[in-house]
Amino acid sequence: MKVVICEDHPQQRKLLHTIIKNYAMMNHPSVEIVLVASDAEQVLSYIENNKADCYFLDIELGDGSNGIQLADAIRKNDLLASIIFVTNYSEALKLTFKYKLAALDYIIKSSDENFSEEIISAFESAVERYEKLGQTKTTNVFQIKMGELIKNVPYENIYYFETSEDFHKIRLYEKNGVYDFYGKLKDIEEIDSTFFRCHKSCVINLQHIIEINKKDKYVKLVNGAKCTVSFRAMRNIISKVNESIVKIE
Amino acid sequence: MELFILSIIEFIILFWAISYATQMKMSMKRILAYILLSMCPSILIFQLIGQWQGIVFLLVSSFTYFFWLSRAFLTLIHICFVLIIGVFTDNLTQVVMKPFSYDALPGMLEHYCIFTVLFILCIIIYKHSTRKIYKLLEEMKTAYMLILFIALVTMSTFYINLYLTEYLSESNLLKFNIITQITYFTIMLFVLYLTIVNIKKENHFRRVEIETAQFTDYMRSLEVINNDMQKFRHDHANILASMQGYIEINDFEGLKKYFRKHIFSAEEDTLKRNMRLANLSKLQITGIKGLILTKTLQAEKEGITVNIEVPDVIDELSMNIIDIARILGIFLDNAIEANMQNHTDKEIDIAIFKSRSNSIMIIIENTIEDDHSVKIDKIFNDGFSTKGENRGKGLSTVRSIMNTYPNVVLRTNVNNGVFSQIIEMEKSEGSQ
Fold first, then answer.
1. Which of B307, B356, B363 sits opposite A148 (nearest CB)?
2. How far is residue A152's CA from residue B363's CA, in Å, rounded to a whole number?
């Protein structure tokens, strides 16, 4: 994994560099620090021809430039790199980092022990992320893009998808959220056998069915949601669920 | 006799089509009443007086009867369209019949079979394709009136063309056709003019509404600021009086302490407020700005920390200001309310920025006690509320507003003690 550090303040630059170098040497020998820059220009010229996997950026770079614009430039070239902000500004732009720049973390500068611990934990999560990206993509997650932040929703957390009243919006209901996105239900039912089209406006996750009501033509899911089942789907659905778990009326 | 049976069949089909399109429950009593009041007399008139008189009676009596049953304008619109579809399919049937020259069935039967099938098909298509449109128009009386007017005029033109032309000679027919077409065209122009006038009015209304809303927002913010000023002046006088006291008795240690404690903290508050205003300076939509400021001050009164991030200049949104203000108002109220139940860190974060794909993101996050306190998939249901009866109108309103915008999506999420509402607006053509 290649790391870039950018910090205009010489002492802090040295401190950052030392913390990461020492920690990486002991724990992740394959990590190399490819650039320790004092201003945004150096980083920009580096990324023109090279790539790095992890960037530690100071937000308040002297000479009028700032780390957010730099991060923006990095993101233009590279959607996957981990970006970690370092700032002495306590009112950090938390949400902007998260959703606009998909920053992994931000650390507020302080002189105490905490600072190096935070740097190390952010570095650790960057390494972890790098290794995950290296492996073949996990296939059992559904990806939702919110700004630049990519949210991976594991299939087993998904209850159901439904089309909203009109337009081409689909609404996904899962354990921790409800998300709108643009798409077609037809493509959703094909991604995994656990998803079943029970109605023209609904795709349910078969794992979460707890009750099938043949009379009133609906299925009930773990979270209490009821989805209408069309006449044709009703015949298929019963053969697809485990009858010892699901209550069929 | 054959004609009699055929007209009975036609009546049955017509009756089915109307009740199907209007979704009225039809009891035996109602059917009988219709046969007695509308069908029988019109058949009699049809046989004894003349074709078109019978048709006119049938139409008028059907209109009155069904309107009396449902008391809804929509019923009239449905009937008009059913009749228009009737004329249309009748013509279509003749076109379809042209290539079939063999006589499989006696007389007009073939024609009627094909007609029936086509008619039923068209009615089903009509009902399914227009359901959503009528739903959209639910609130708008004027739109209903316009549609009804257009449908009535179109239907009359169709029927006049069908039935009255039989009474005319070749040369008169041409004149008659020109007259009906010109009349029809003029009426349509008139309708178009009305529509345009209406749209203009609506827009004007909207603008006034927006301005009023903004004005009230401003008034509120000004009030809050004014109260703050009052408080500050009051404190200020007190502080000076206390300092005077310390000086009088030469207690410099006490004065130092006092100075640090009271004056510095007051300054810090001012700094913080300026910071927030600076953060909002890139948001150049006054209505939204006022709203956020008002709600922020309200939240701080409750002891909630509010962070606002507007890193990019935002000068227009592809959503109606009133709508987005309503949505943000609901979200912020909910965030404030959720925080009131918290005992530890009370925090609301608001961010508005342009994403890489140039859509605008508005994010509101607030801390919650624990993740299970939010029933994520139920909060949008009408009337659902964790706070008892007569509440929970908020989020269902949000959803119904959202549904009118094809370019806006909402994502709601709970994660590690943070509840987030994320709105993403794509740039759309013809945005306001």
1. B356
2. 19
